[in-house]
Amino acid sequence: MVSINTTRKGASTNPFSKLLRSTGNWLPPFLGVGSFLLVWQILSMTGLIALPAPTSLFTEERTRNLIFYPFYDRGGLDKGLFWQTMASLGRVAQGYTLAALVGIGVGITIGLKPGINRAFDPLFQFLRMVAPLAWVPIALVLFQKNQPAAIFVIFITAVWPILINTAEGVRQIPQDYRNVALVLQMSSRRFFTKVLIPSALPYIFTGLRISIGLAWLAIIAAEIVMPGTVGIGFFIWDAYQQNYVGEIVLGVIWIGAIGLVLDRLMAWLQTRISAGQ
Amino acid sequence: MSTLIQPPLPGLAAPPAEAFLRFENVSKVYPTAKGPYPVLDGIDLSVNESEFMCVIGHSGCGKSTLLNMVSGFATPSDGRVVLHGSAITKPGPDRMVVFQGYALLPWFSAYENVYLAIDSVKPDLPEREKREITREHLAMVGLTEAADKKIPQLSGGMKQRVAIARALAIRPEVLILDEPFGALDAITKEELQEELLTIWNTQKCTVLMITHDIDEALFLADRLVMMTNGPAAKIGEILDITFPRPRNREEIMEDPLYYDLRNQALDFLYSRFAHDDTE
Question: For residues A157 and A114, what is the distance between their CA atoms, to the nearest angstrom?
Answer without folding.
Answer: 24
